[in-house]
Amino acid sequence: MSEGAIERGARDTIGRRGIAIRLAGEAAHGLLFAGYVLADAALLERRAVAHMPTLGAAARGDVSGGAIRIGAEPGEYPLVDQADCLLVTSVAGMRRYGGGLAPGGRVIAEESLPALPEFAIALPLVRTAIETGGTPLVVDLVAAAVVTEMTGAVSRRALQEAAARLLPARGRPAGLAALDAGIELGKRRLRA
Amino acid sequence: MAVTLLHGREALAWGAANGGASFFAAASLAAAGMDGALAEETRTRGGAVVDAGSAAAALSAALDAAVRGAVSVAALGGGDLPSAAPLIARAVRERVPLVILVEGAWTGSAVEPEGAAQRELSLLRWISDPAPALYAPASADEAYALARAAALAARAGGAPVGLYLDAALASLREPVETAEARDAVPSRGGAALPAAAALPALAALPEAELYRTRDASVLAVAAGIAARAARTAVRVARERGTRAGLIRLIRLWPLPDAELAASAERAQRVVVAELNEGQLWEPLAARLHSGERRPVVRSLAEPGAGALPPERILAALLDEAA
Asked: Which of B4, B185, B228 to mutate: most A Cβ within 10 Å?
């Protein structure tokens, strides 16, 4: 596999229980926070959840995000080595994690990224954030909502509750507007 | 009772706090998951949290506090063990009630610790004779429970207890059922400590977890994150018709003899799933070969291999069972 290529995993891998989500983008996109919102939403629903935020050097580097496994068998392997859903908003994110897809895994990508594979679902994540929240900084909430809508990993209600709980008061209106827009974007895509 | 998401390293620290620890020292508080809330909580109880700057200084401060009667916790990184070894040995020799938290060093990717090793296991075992009792939780929830019990043991004035968490689990956030003393973590405001009698003692906690071992002909033995990969592998092996089972070691040292002996009576083959160079295999093989039946014991240790995914353990289980 060449570096940077987005490929689905081999069929002989073990199907992990639950759903594995990976988020990767520029640090400014705040996908680290999106992981916290999704993990908290899963916790609110009392689902089994394991969340590995991007840490250390990576958090200061060119990729930010995290990996979340929701609904796994307790006691089983919690790490995300192959994502069922990979959401990327940057070329560096795609390069780093593009090779880590589960068989049948889905890629949701910011539409402006170059050289996306045919099976990637290109969506206007950043544009939606700007149009609804007035800033690309809320793309994290658009992303969390799109992932929720397209995977069903957590419920909309839990996602909204988690976001409301985690967002600081000052950023709550823009953040929740971005969340609603992300849900609509995901719904439209599913209908299409 | 509340459920909250904690990193494994935070779960260790808060578990110890809930068990009554009143003194914490680490080379770096942030790296040890000891945040401002923990410091505030500890101070309201009249304790202290010390950013010692080095592992040896942290251990030295914790030892000193323990000798003076505090329920004391030292947090070390795996790479710190060589410099901390003499002080750990002293704590064991003098039976100083001390809780030693050790976080495995990261290997492989600097980005995410999926390739975490468990190389420190050998060092922790051989660091002194006798070695401190050493536990390896496999989840944040278990880390919390064990650390709480270890602090309780220290309250009762026992010998030092080590808790080892590999890097992957230390960084992973998982749900933790926090105990009666707090509604959530962090609570802030100095919640009352639970009475010692209300907490489970360390000796009352299981030393090993047996998963589908009753009729197993091939066994995986593992600890920490490797045990969770092994559990997935055992489930799939069973789905494919192989009578596989898992002994998850919760207490690494001394080894849980009863569970090992009972399982070795039945299994013909044992696969040691470990993320290191065979540090677990060696004492396990010696123990399993001490009885009349001598199962074949194979290690999956592979220097520099990084992660140990379920697929590799499954392949070994199926291969051994063939």
From this structure: B228
Nearest residue on chain A to B223, alpha-carbon basis: A75
pLDDT for residue B33 is more than 90:
no
Q: Which CATH class is domain A19-191?
A: alpha beta
Distances (CA, A) of B252 to A33, A123, B109, B162, B255: 36, 49, 26, 10, 5
Per-residue pLDDT for B110 more than 60? no
- As a whole number, mean pLDDT of residues B163-173 equals 91
Residues 108 through 167 of chain B touching chain A, CB cutoff 8 Å? 110-114, 138-139
Residues of A in contact with B138 (CB under 8 A): 75
Does B246 touch chain A if contact means CB atoms closer than 8 Å?
no
Mean pLDDT, rounded, for A33-57: 91
Q: Does B258 touch chain A (CB under 8 A)?
A: no
Task: For chain A, give every domain's residue range.
Answer: 19-191
Share of chain B above pLDDT 90, in %: 45
Nearest to A77 among B110, B112, B229 (CB): B229
Q: Is the CB of B235 inside 8 Å of chain A's CB atoms?
A: yes
Rounded Cα distance between B193 and B294, Å, is 48
Task: With a cut of 50, say whether residue B184 has pLDDT above it.
Answer: no
Cα–Cα dist B15/B71, whole Å: 13
Q: What is the pLDDT of residues A90-138, one digit of tens each?
A: 998 898 888 888 988 999 999 999 988 888 999 999 999 999 988 888 9
**Between chains, do A81 and B307 touch, taking CB under 8 Å as contact?**
yes
Determine the angle formed by the axes of helices B224-239 and B310-321, rounding to 10 degrees.
50
B140 to chain A, minimum CA–CA distance in Å?
10
pLDDT at B187: 44
Q: What is the pTM of this model?
A: 0.90
Q: Residue A8 in 3-state DSSP?
A: strand
Q: How far apart are CA A29 and CA A141, in angstroms?
A: 10
Assign residue B40 a region: left if phi > 0, alpha if psi is -120 to 50, beta otherwise? alpha
Paired with A124 in beta bridges are none
Whether residue A75 lies within 8 A of chain B, CB to CB, comes out as yes
Within an 8 Å CB–CB cutoff, is residue A81 touching chain B?
yes
